[in-house]
Structures are given as structure tokens and as C-alpha cells.
Inverse folding.
């Protein structure tokens, strides 16, 4: 069986507090969360275990992709775990779950931030689907946007 976890690891020059703000403040998340020319039009964040974690991504040709989810773990400044298996307050989602995502932040020795961003999938097929959607290129492009935004704060 292949690994069902996909992840990227990045270093940012910005301090961890700035990177965390980009993950935890809706207006900042909108600015970087999906690779351009896509953009995020709506964000709902209830930063607590069981709280809603919703984004709506929009494409250049009018595509609209709502992503409904829920936070499973929130450790301010350090860790977020979220899933699409639930949509808030432990209500199951309407569709079969695709993934559980996570972000782990830690201080880098140079004063910057080390980030691991990953997704654990419910099946090998979902893992392969995420890869074919451009997981690595897309998440790295979004991480570049995150780096630029966090460095500007």
C-alpha cells in the first residue's frame, strides 16, 4: 500500500506569529490560500476543535469550489488539523470525506518559521486524485504567496 499522506515542508523568513496570522485570520487567508489566478472569495473560521473551517475558491473561468470542513485540533501559533469529514459542530459532511489536512509551525534557528503542510487521505484513490490535481505545484505556489504575505506583515 502506498502512503496516503502528501506533504510539503517550507522555510519562511517571517516569524512564526506572522505565519500563524496568515493561517488564522480570514482576510489574510483569502490573500494567499490558493494559487493565482484562483482566489478565495469567502472564509468562515471558528478556530476551535469542532469549529467550522470553510473556504470558497474561485477560478478564472468562473469556477466555484466550496470547501466545507471542521477544525479537529487548534494549538495557537503551532498547529491546525482540519477535515472535510465534518462541517462544524461534528455534523458529518454531505459528501464522502476526501482528506484531513494539517499545518505544523515551529521556530527556525534563523528567526524564521519552519512549516509542514500536509494532507492525509481516506483512500489510495483520493491520494492519487490529489496528486493529479497538482498537489505539489499548487501547494508550493500557495506557500510562496504565504511567504510573501507573512514577510510583509
Amino acid at each position: 500500500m502506498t502512503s496516503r499522506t502528501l506533504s510539503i515542508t517550507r522555510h519562511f523568513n517571517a516569524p512564526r506569529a506572522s505565519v500563524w496570522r496568515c493561517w488564522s485570520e480570514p482576510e489574510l487567508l483569502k490573500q494567499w490560500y490558493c494559487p493565482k489566478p484562483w482566489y478565495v472569495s469567502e472564509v468562515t473560521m471558528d478556530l476551535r476543535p469542532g469549529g467550522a473551517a470553510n473556504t470558497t475558491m474561485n477560478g478564472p473561468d468562473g469556477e466555484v469550489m466550496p470547501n466545507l470542513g471542521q477544525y479537529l485540533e487548534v494549538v495557537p501559533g503551532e498547529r491546525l488539523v482540519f477535515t472535510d469529514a465534518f462541517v462544524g459542530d461534528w455534523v458529518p459532511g454531505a459528501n464522502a470525506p476526501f482528506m484531513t489536512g494539517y499545518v505544523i509551525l515551529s521556530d527556525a534557528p534563523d528567526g524564521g518559521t519552519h512549516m509542514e503542510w500536509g494532507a492525509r487521505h481516506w483512500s489510495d484513490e483520493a491520494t492519487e486524485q490529489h496528486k493529479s490535481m497538482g498537489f505539489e505545484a499548487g501547494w508550493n505556489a500557495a506557500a510562496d504567496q504565504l511567504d510573501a504575505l507573512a514577510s510583509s506583515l
User: Anything to note?
Assistant: Residues 135-152 form the longest helix (18 residues). The beta strands are 5-12, 39-45, 53-58, 64-67, 70-75, 79-83, 99-107, 113-121. The helical segments are 16-24, 26-32, 124-132, 135-152.
